[in-house]
Amino acid sequence: MQFLVRMDVRLPHDMPQDVADDLRAREKARAHEIQASGRWPELWRVVGQYANVSRFDVESGDELHQLLTSLPLFPYMQVEVTALTVHPSKLES
Ligand SMILES: O=C(O)CC1=CCC(=O)O1
């Protein structure tokens, strides 16, 4: 199943810099693990925002939920998930 996911990150303004830096480093490492598994084929920065849009390729919504909640920044993100299916007008490539 393909899912479009938008993640908006909101770190508390009073979070110490070293805590934020550690969270970001752990987020990057976990994101690399998931990408290497082939389940996170696209990850894009939203220009001008601390947000990303991504495409995930997973077996189920449960699997996507497990991946998203495994991200260290998950407690600080607003996540919007859209399930995708093939558009009937799409040209075969
Ligand atoms: O910076 C972000 O958009 C949050 C994030 C998701 C994966 C990652 O490495 O950072």
TrEMBL record:
Sequence ranges assigned to domain Muconolactone isomerase in this UniProt record: 1-89
EC nos: 5.3.3.4
Protein's pathway: Aromatic compound metabolism; beta-ketoadipate pathway; 5-oxo-4,5-dihydro-2-furylacetate from catechol: step 3/3
Superkingdom: Bacteria
Keywords tagged on the record: Aromatic hydrocarbons catabolism, Isomerase
GO molecular function (one): muconolactone delta-isomerase activity
Family annotation (InterPro entries): Dimeric_a/b-barrel (IPR011008), MLI_dom (IPR026029), Muconolactone_d_Isoase (IPR003464)
Family classification: Belongs to the muconolactone Delta-isomerase family.
Subunit structure: Homodecamer.
NCBIfam families found in the cross-reference section: muco_delta (TIGR03221)
Protein's recorded name: Muconolactone Delta-isomerase
